[in-house]
Amino acid sequence: MKSIVCEQPFEFKMIQSEKPVPNSGEALIRVRRIGICGTDIHAYGGNQPFFSYPRILGHELSGYIESIPENESGLNVGDQVSIIPYMECGECLACRSGKTNCCTDMKVLGVHAEGGMSEWITVPYNHLVRTEGLTLDQSAMIEPLSIGAHAVRRAAIHKGEFALVIGAGPIG
Length: 172
Fold this sequence. Notes:
Elements: E1 2-8, E2 11-16, E3 26-35, H1 38-45, E4 60-67, E5 80-83, E6 86-87, H2 93-96, E7 107-108, E8 120-124, E9 128-130, H3 136-140, H4 142-155
Antiparallel strand pairs: 1-2, 3-4, 3-8, 4-5, 5-9, 6-7
């Protein structure tokens, strides 16, 4: 399997490694699209906090399920999916309260754990979203668009109110 590794700031390297084998509760995904995020650019530039090198970048991902165990979500081999890149621990108070976005031991693909700039990646199948009807490009944009949607929901803006959106990227 080919992967692109950010060895150190301003240095990418193509590596060859074994195709990953899913653990229990995981699916094997053939990565077909990767969005380049500000997070990736900052990591490449050496100014990404909480980051260590070398690292396979990439957390805005879409692809196809290559293997998956039987699951309650009805996901199957061949399904087109987007990947939720935030890997919560499932055990801390925030996770037990259903607020996995506040996990005290959060691992983000491409930042704290190896990301998707590879031919294949394994992820928990409960971190997959079936994206039938969307293009692969659109599927890779689900993660950044969900950040914006979450911000709008938290702002609780009502009809007639105004908001200032700062930023020209996909989230803004």
